[in-house]
Request: fold
Amino acid sequence: MEPNIAIRRGKLTDINNVYNLGLRIKELNFSRKIRFHEKREMKEWIKKPRDNLFFTALDSRKVVGFVYAKIVDKDWCMLDNIAVAEDYRRTGIGTNLLNKVCQELKKRKVTYIQALVEEHHTKARKFWENHRFQKGKIFVWYEKRLK
Ligand SMILES: CC(C)(COP(=O)(O)OP(=O)(O)OC[C@H]1O[C@@H](n2cnc3c(N)ncnc32)[C@H](O)[C@@H]1OP(=O)(O)O)[C@@H](O)C(=O)NCCC(=O)NCCS
Reply:
């Protein structure tokens, strides 16, 4: 990892930066309707740290990455988003964010972690495979516009 990158819990003062970073990352914005998280959701993650793991990676005071994972049940965690700014990728920041979440989950005796990635995002899939995540069930996204 780059020498000056710090990983810590997300704070209220990070929200604008995480939001702007999230909107820039195409993999996290599925469609025109389904965009990145709302800022009010991020406030909830910070207010309820028992169920929500939210960490940011900082280069000095600049947010360059984040991870958000939700503990859905007592031993099941859904890793919802992990992202690193494009010009900071492949230096180990994503791995460090993931390790931080896993460390925290182990402390809480959570034994299962799940992540979703679109099939064609081969770089992101490689990331999960490098970290020994195995392919689980394949779903098809059905949708309909209600008029
Ligand atoms: C997935 C992601 C978080 C990885 O972050 P990172 O800081 O680059 O990760 P690391 O440096 O720890 O690991 C890099 C590994 O990820 C994969 N990878 C990440 N970015 C890549 C890129 N631009 N080109 C090729 N491989 C890439 C490779 O497997 C790479 O391993 P390698 O360097 O040994 O080939 C980052 O690529 C990202 O933000 N992607 C967009 C968001 C996303 O798809 N998130 C996952 C779904 S929620």
